[in-house]
UniProtKB/TrEMBL annotation:
<comment type="similarity">
    <text>Belongs to the carbohydrate kinase PfkB family.</text>
</comment>
<dbReference type="Pfam" id="PF00294">
    <property type="entry name" value="PfkB"/>
</dbReference>
<keyword id="KW-0808">Transferase</keyword>
<dbReference type="InterPro" id="IPR029056">
    <property type="entry name" value="Ribokinase-like"/>
</dbReference>
<dbReference type="InterPro" id="IPR002173">
    <property type="entry name" value="Carboh/pur_kinase_PfkB_CS"/>
</dbReference>
<protein>
    <submittedName>
        <fullName>Carbohydrate kinase</fullName>
    </submittedName>
</protein>
<dbReference type="InterPro" id="IPR050306">
    <property type="entry name" value="PfkB_Carbo_kinase"/>
</dbReference>
<dbReference type="InterPro" id="IPR011611">
    <property type="entry name" value="PfkB_dom"/>
</dbReference>
<feature type="domain" description="Carbohydrate kinase PfkB">
    <location>
        <begin position="21"/>
        <end position="280"/>
    </location>
</feature>
<dbReference type="GO" id="GO:0016301">
    <property type="term" value="F:kinase activity"/>
</dbReference>
<keyword id="KW-0418">Kinase</keyword>
Length: 293
């Protein structure tokens, strides 16, 4: 498809008790968009080491270009110790510093950012100044900016997050993150009121809130829409939110309404949770079957 989508941020290995799996929200989103027929670009950085080579090989296996993934001679490839003892609420120990903390700005990147129709970025890659500087520079030239909030203590602060929110057009966050960010300004007990506040406070076009097994909600200029969750047997939730975002955005780009895109995204996120790892390829008919019951 001709829509140009760029995903900026971390590429890493999730270290699980059963072994290691490729991960990082921007890469996961890009892979799920690739499954839908798009040709997204990943901007990241890996170490010049075996783990880095493994991630570059993995991207190529998934049909994604590696030319925008920088290699750092000094920093190691990113790793995360993932605790999946609670299958529905994975916790993470994210090593710092690593290569994706040092994504460097250059003229070619600036041109790529300016040419992208959708620029997807997260909060985690902004934890260190070098990558944060590059990200903010790219946001100055990007068209539609999609902020995938990913609050991992202690790797964020209000000071870092607010400039990213002010640049965004579309923001996706979970219900815990909604209450925390809205709570910077005032206390909310009602999710919809919190979404309305953030939409106005940061001049956002669209606010998407995921609710785990309870589905998701979208607030846009077109209205407020909710979708119930789908009951599945969870293997682990790693990458479910990434698959949700890729599905929602991809289907909306293809012309689906917000309620239709939300329904598809909730089903996709649920189905990914029935697999181990972040990027299983889910056949479209599986999504249709889950929606139709």
């Amino acid at each position: 498809m001709n829509t140009k989508i760029t995903c900026f941020g971390e590429m890493l290995w999730d270290i699980l008790p059963s072994g290691k799996l490729p991960g990082g929200a921007p890469m996961n989103v890009a892979i799920h968009l690739q499954y839908q027929g798009f040709t997204p670009i990943v901007i990241s950085c890996v170490g010049r080491d075996e783990l880095g080579k493994g991630l570059l090989d993995y991207l190529q296996q998934k049909g994604l270009a590696t030319q925008w993934v920088q290699e750092d001679e000094e920093q190691q490839t990113g790793v995360v110790m993932a605790n999946v003892s609670n299958r529905s609420e994975v916790s993470y120990d994210i090593v710092q510093p690593v290569a994706w903390d040092y994504i460097q700005m250059n003229d070619d990147l600036r041109q790529l950012g300016a040419e992208s129709d959708f620029f997807i970025y997260g909060s985690l890659a902004a934890r260190s100044e070098p990558s944060r500087h590059t990200l903010l520079s790219l946001l100055e030239v990007a068209k539609v900016k999609v902020f995938d909030v990913n609050l991992r203590p202690p790797h964020y602060s209000r000071e870092v997050l607010e400039p990213l929110l002010k640049q965004a057009d579309i923001v996706k966050m979970n219900h815990h993150e909604l209450m925390e960010i809205a709570g910077w300004h005032q206390a909310f007990t009602d999710e919809k009121a919190g979404m309305e506040f953030l939409k106005e406070q940061y001049a956002l076009q669209t606010v998407i809130v995921t609710r785990g097994e309870n589905g998701a909600a979208v607030l846009s200029d077109e209205g407020y829409f909710e979708q119930a969750g789908y009951a599945v047997e969870v293997e682990d939730t790693i990458g479910s939110g990434d698959a949700f975002l890729a599905s929602f955005l991809g289907n909306h780009i293809k012309g689906e309404t917000y309620p239709e895109a939300l329904q598809q995204a909730c089903a996709m996120g649920a189905l990914v949770a029935t697999h181990k790892g972040a990027t299983p390829e889910i056949a479209p008919e599986k999504v249709t079957d889950l929606i139709n019951g």
